[in-house]
Amino acid sequence: MAKQQAKAPPEGGAPAGGKGKLKLIILGVVALLLAVGLSVGATWFFLSRGDKAEEPAEEAAAAPTRQPAIYLDMAPAFVVNFSQNGRQRYMQVSVALMARDQAQLDALKVHMPVLRNKLVMLFSGQGFESLVTPVGKEMLRQQATATVQELAKQETGATVVEQVLFTNFVLQ
C-alpha cells in the first residue's frame, strides 16, 4: 500500500515537475519581451536624439525664406465646350492661383487677359474621357500650372505662381 501512495500525484492534480517548467517558460518569455523592448527603446532614443540636433539648423535656414501663401481667385469661372462623338460637352472650372509674393502677383495681374486666353485654349483642347478620371483632372491642373508659370516667366521674369488650384470642377 505504501507503493501506491508514493505513485499518487500530489493534491494539485499535476506532477510537481510541470509547475517548474511552466514558471521557467513564463520567465523566459518575460525576459525575451523585456530584451526586445529595451532594444527598441534604445534604438528610438539614439535615432531621435540625432534628428533633434539637426532640426534647429534646418528650421532656422528655411523659416525666413518661406512666406505665407497668397491666393488669387480668377473670376469669373472658365466655361468651355468640346465635342465627344458628335455630342456637345461643357466644362466649368473655377481657378485660384497660389503665390508667395504679392508684388509679383500684382505684376502678373496686368497680363490677366493673356493668361485667361491661354487657360481657355488649354481647357477647350481636352478630351472628356480623360477629364472624368481623377488622374486626368490632376494632369490638367499640372498643365495649367505649367502654362501660367511659363507666361509669368515670360512677362515678369519670375515664375510667380506656385500652383494653380481648381476650386470648382463641373463636367456635363
UniProtKB/TrEMBL annotation:
Recorded superkingdom: Bacteria
Annotated compartments: Cell inner membrane; Cell membrane
Single Gene Ontology BP annotation: bacterial-type flagellum-dependent swarming motility
Stored Pfam families: FliL
Cellular component per GO, a single term: bacterial-type flagellum basal body
Entry-linked InterPro entries: FliL (IPR005503)
Protein's membrane topology: Single-pass membrane protein
Keywords: Cell inner membrane, Cell membrane, Cell projection, Chemotaxis, Cilium, Flagellar rotation, Flagellum, Membrane, Transmembrane, Transmembrane helix
Coiled coil: none
Residues annotated as transmembrane: 24-47
Protein family according to the UniProt entry: Belongs to the FliL family.
Function (record text): Controls the rotational direction of flagella during chemotaxis.
Name this protein carries in UniProt: Flagellar protein FliL
Protein source organism: Metapseudomonas furukawaii
